[in-house]
Amino acid sequence: MSGCAAGEAPAVTAPDPEEYREQARAWMEANLERRADTEGDARSPTLGGSTDKTPEGIAPERRLQRRLHDAGYAGITWPAAYGGQGLGPEHQRAFDEAARHFVLPDFGIVGGTTFGVCAPTMLAHASPAFLERHIPRILAGEELFAQFFSDPEAGSDLAGVRTQAVRDGDRWILRGSKIWSSGAYYADYGMCLARTDWDVPKHRGLTWFAVPTTAKGVTVRRIRQINGNAEFCQEFFDDVELTDDDVIGPVNGGWTVTQTMLFFERGGGGAAGRMTTRGSIAPDLTELAASAGRLDDPLVRDLIARAHVDDLVRDAFQARLGGLMAANPALAASLASYGKLATGTFDPIRANLAMQVGGPHAVVWDRSPSPGADAATGLLNSRILSIAGGSNEMQRNTIGERVLGLPREPAFDTRKPFRDVLRDAQNWSGQVG
Amino acid sequence: MTVGLLPALTDEQAMLLDATVRFIEAEFPMEAVRERADGGEGPDAGYLRAAARLGWLGMLADEAHGGGSASGNGLLDAAVIAAERGARLQPGPFAGHSVVVHALSRAGSPGQLEVLAGLVEGRCWATWVADGTCVGSAGQHVELGDAGDGLMLNGTVDGVPDAADCEWLLVAASGRDGLVQVLVPAGAPGVSVRRLEGVDLTRRWCAVELHGVRLPAEAVVGAPGLPTEQLVRCQVEIGCVLSAAEAVGAMDANFRLALDHARSRIAFGRPIGSFQAVKHVLADSSLFLEMSKGIVAAAAGALGRGVPDGPALAHAAKSFVGERGIELTHTCFQVFGGIGYTWEHDQHLFMRRLAAEAAAFGPPAWHRERLLAVAGLS
Q: Which domains does chain A show, CATH number per domain?
């Protein structure tokens, strides 16, 4: 899926990627701050372990994004008609290479949802009028989008959302609640999935909307997480007024849009990246073992070795998965589930190994951060990717049915009106037909 | 159906793979494997000659010694062959033979290179018989001492697959000047190869007993001590990769059988594979299988190219595949249910093979300790 630049003729004067990189580098030298060296930070990534962003804290990031945009380095592969540069992925790569040593705008998790998920999905499905209104503002750092995706009562069964938008003259009235919206408290908009028809099967009555977080009737509540952060939010919609201008893609055609969005959320078909630990042996665990004085303990050494084996295998597997996707483009989206399941399976295993290596040092500590405290935080964060963005169980279904060709589970909700689905489920008998 | 150890093949690799699969299915298909497990005969000498013509046996020899690969990376090509062999539970000490070919190609004297030529041409099998210290099994000692104007070999090594079919044994022993290897004719006085019973019925497992085996000084391969230690480490790594590749092939075939069963077996009005309880364990096994293929291919690729992380990847592969292979065969067994406990079903042949392969060239825990050593955690 090449939603970004789809339909766009290549720029007539597309620069040579080499020259483009040098030109970008020169601009960065003159205009951007150099990054402090972050090499050596080879710890396994712990999502959710970052510091919370604040609305005030991202103001300078917005200004930085504006500078990038003004200089012509925002939306490199996005259509020029909407303020992008209309260039190819090779130019994006050239820019990324040049940018490695410079400070770019950091919008936290919302940066990823805005630029990596929401905007590409909009470009693939939204009307030209919508795109003209929103994409230039996104590129200028004026509109950040969170995802209003899961309902409190619909997570894995995403097509079963009950948040609804009701037609009222030429307006839409939004009612319900969304949850697990990362960073919504400092985003400007939420891209929101709502039910717009209850009398058709669940996949056919869904529509996407752009909902301003400051609109009347929108309440954003931050959710305190078990690691102490509060990046996730829940939103409540009390008769929020929207118009047709806010609709993204076709009314009641939201499921197709959702497929595109999930595709981008899973890394555009590329498997979730992983920091390579090759060459260094599980640095977090060796540091932990050393701080606990247990580096000579054969039992601890075996735990460290197990972690290192798994790290090496995960890296090798990512390479294989990339090869498999390239060899089977039609199957790539389903194969991506292997990458997700690998992460969701091995993150918890690794966190458990760290807890064993740390022993009492990963249970109590004098100071934090410390290797022991980090191991404990790692444990608390270890199930993030076995649940978020499609649980392990969902990945197993995809692998089982779409890759291995196993027969599907019987479905009780795909043919009848969604209104009846909820009623029948409450009178569950276990009998079909 | 092929194992798919590599996501993409060169044209030459694809030809090798295709010829390999057709050869095995014509010469020693699963029916023959099953008969052999019941005490039947193994393949005749024609099998080995034909395998050599396909290029199986020269992958780890220099071109100057009659070797050659399909892709330029002989170990990677050998791993592709090993995986297809494993999928079809082929007999014969392919990994051991390949290790000997590599050692002789690297360190063989002119006389030993003549033996090597025969091994590459498939005139006979050879295998590697290693003192336990080389592969993490303490207690299996082989010593090489002086005897008059020659040498004398003593010791016993258990669990050498298909040693009885071999004409040559490369023996790693502890000697006066440290680790030393000697090339021993299997028929030399004092060498006895005793059949053992064992879990794996797809190969003939043997104890190699060496009682006062007198050898000329020319039997020594390479220089004892440090050079031999280095060569032996390399042999272990190659053995790891090829053994793990055979195991991955067996995992793949075992998994496919279970998958077919889950698709076709009906219970409670549904194919059992539609139940998440079954579907999900198969999806997990499929992940471990794909990860196993990934690490074996990475290890073969890196070790064969001689890049620095090759040894670490080889030990990681042997450890991971050893443990996940057993897990996978348990899952398959569970999916089969009672039928898997019958002699006629192939499930036990795969479980037997995977259990034996997990221990070959050293058990998983030993490879993890080796991994820490080669990766520099001391």
A: 34-143 (1.10.540), 148-255 (2.40.110.10), 266-403 (1.20.140.10)
